[in-house]
Specification:
two-stranded antiparallel sheet; alpha/beta; 7-stranded mixed beta sheet; 12 helices
């Protein structure tokens, strides 16, 4: 019975999402993006408890904020999430705009050279701005970026969400042993892979992020070292007028997986502090990270020797 109710719940939720998306797509592009941001901020965030989660995370890692600045971020972060979702489901119009979006920064030269030489590369970002801006921007220039994705818990929503994501570049690899294996083959063939780095992984080592301990996977750095490819931090940053700029940073120097992962965390932290309203503060990013066990310390020490 519980399985039936869960299936029904998923179907109802997906039907509501599909209806909302269908309605929004009847509107002009700029209008639908704006409304999606408003709904996310003023309807979904209060209902889901996201506002409180954002406040808690801000109080943890940015306690110096004034109440006014903190509350501004509490509203800006859900707005970013709503805009990103509608941009994802507005692929035609969004990609047309991304074709005009500038790609800047020192990482562009390294990535262009890697592409011309047929070498793979890892483009690393976070749940910041809109990471699809990176994929769409490079795709418009003839460079597709494959990605590893996590299947959504709602299978009905997952089906069309993955299809929408694929509009911004393929292939798409589902997280798991088989998906990881195929992704590595793709990387070794000389292709680019995009990785969203700021997810909490239960058994990952603990290193600092935003000045607080957070479980952080070393996988991106491990891959860069093992297959000798560039590890380039990239960010799709939303501008005040709603357009995007894709910023690329210099490739992270190859040292150890731990040092490189710390550098990735520091890179993302700089962007978050510069544009705090563009990061997904709803993540439970620092949960349980204070429980640094001997196993955690041994894991980091072992990796440092590799």
């Amino acid at each position: 019975m519980s399985s039936f109710l869960r299936k029904l719940e998923h179907k109802v939720a997906d039907a509501a999402i599909r209806f909302f998306l269908w309605t929004m797509r009847k509107l002009p592009y700029d209008r639908r993006i704006s409304i999606a941001g408003w709904v996310s901020t003023n309807v979904l965030a209060p209902l889901t408890g996201n506002r409180q989660r954002i406040r808690e995370n801000l109080n943890l890692v940015m306690p110096e904020l004034s109440e006014r600045d903190r509350e501004a971020i509490v509203h800006q972060a859900p707005e970013t999430m709503g805009r990103v979702m509608m941009e994802t489901y507005s692929a035609k119009e969004y990609k047309e705009r991304l074709a005009q979006a500038p790609i800047v920064g020192p990482g562009l030269e390294a990535l262009t050279k890697a592409h011309e030489e047929g070498r793979g590369a890892l483009l690393v970002t976070g749940h910041f701005g809109n990471y699809l801006a990176i994929r769409g921007g490079f795709l418009a220039r003839g460079i597709p970026i494959g990605v590893l994705y996590k299947r959504m818990s709602n299978p009905y929503f997952n089906a069309h969400y993955v299809s929408a994501m694929a509009e911004f570049g393929e292939p798409m690899f589902e997280r798991g042993r088989r998906g990881m294996s195929n992704m590595i083959k793709h990387l070794r063939s000389g292709a680019f892979i995009g990785i969203v780095h700021d997810q909490r992984i239960n058994d990952a080592p603990i290193i600092d992020f935003m000045g607080k301990p957070a479980r952080t996977a070393f996988s991106a750095a491990d891959l860069a070292l093992k297959y000798d490819v560039d590890l380039v931090p990239c960010y799709g940053i939303r501008q005040p007028d709603g357009s995007y700029v894709v910023e690329t940073e210099s490739p992270i120097p190859h040292t150890t997986a731990e040092q490189m992962t710390r550098a990735l965390n520091e890179s993302l932290e700089r962007k978050i502090r510069a544009y705090p309203g563009q990061w997904m503060w709803t993540h439970n990013r620092w949960r349980d990270a204070g429980n640094d066990t001997s196993e955690d310390r041994a894991r980091v020490k072992k990796r440092a020797k590799q």
